[in-house]
Amino acid sequence: MASITTLTFFRFSSRKSKLWAFGQMQFAHISIAKSSGLIFYKLMGSGRDIGFSIFPDWEVYALLGVWENEQAAGDFFNHSPIYKKYQKRSFEQWTIFMKPIQTKGLWSGGNPFIPSLELDSNNTLIAVITRATIKPNKLLKFWRFVPTSQRPIERGCAGLIYTKGVGEAPIIQMATFSLWENVESLKNFAYNSLEHREAIKRTQQIDWYKEEMFTRFQPFKTTGTLEGIDLMAPYLKTQFN
Questions:
Q1: Which of 14, 34, 82, 139 is buried most deeply by CB count within 10 Å?
Q2: SS3 (DSSP) at 157
Q3: Cβ-proximal residues to 160 (8 Å cutoff; 6+ apart), any chain
């Protein structure tokens, strides 16, 4: 069986639960790392605004996992003591299951996302994770341009279901997750948005990333809710029912 990727968003409401979640950014690693069948993981905070943000969202945290197979992932979500602690303290959890399609770049010096040979040709949904470590001497230039680069998303992108900025470390190590109805919508944003094209141009000219990665996935299942709904459920029903 091929490896799969999961991304879980947790939402915390009370001050006590938010403090607990913040503390787990340091203390949860020992428990998560020893999970059976786990190949790669990242425990991340999130940004307050759409996309990259220097302002933290203390309510939302994320757990990315690459698993040997779907059963290993299921065992973690059903039986792991650390996950049950997150469930108990958060008022909402949403997990998206994905198969890697294509990856460019590195994350922590390697590529954990091996393209799947078991993609469903009837499933048009596309998820994207972009991740970067910004060079310290390029931080000011990078963050000055961020508001401009994110204007297309703030205006509203056709076919964009959801997006959220996440990261391992504030300001320096940033990532975004986005979920799209189809690859055409993603390409329209990537290639027809003047601001996004300018961001690509500046990335090449200024070379502000120490490390970067861009990965496309095929989402195939979700569990739970985020902001009161299962974001992907309506699209899965449309395609497969």
A1: 82
A2: coil
A3: 153, 178, 179, 180, 181, 185, 189
Split into its structural domains, the chain has a count of 1
Amino acid at 70: E
Range of the domain at 171: 4-236
Q: Give a yes or no: residue 124 inside a domain.
A: yes
Structure token pair of residue 2: 């091929």
pLDDT digit string (tens) for 22-81? 999 999 999 999 999 999 999 999 987 666 667 789 999 999 999 999 999 999 999 999
**pLDDT tens digits, residue range 122-156?**
999 999 999 989 888 877 777 776 666 666 565 56
What residues contact residue 37 under an 8 Å CB cut-off, 6+ apart? 67, 68, 69, 71, 72, 73, 75, 76
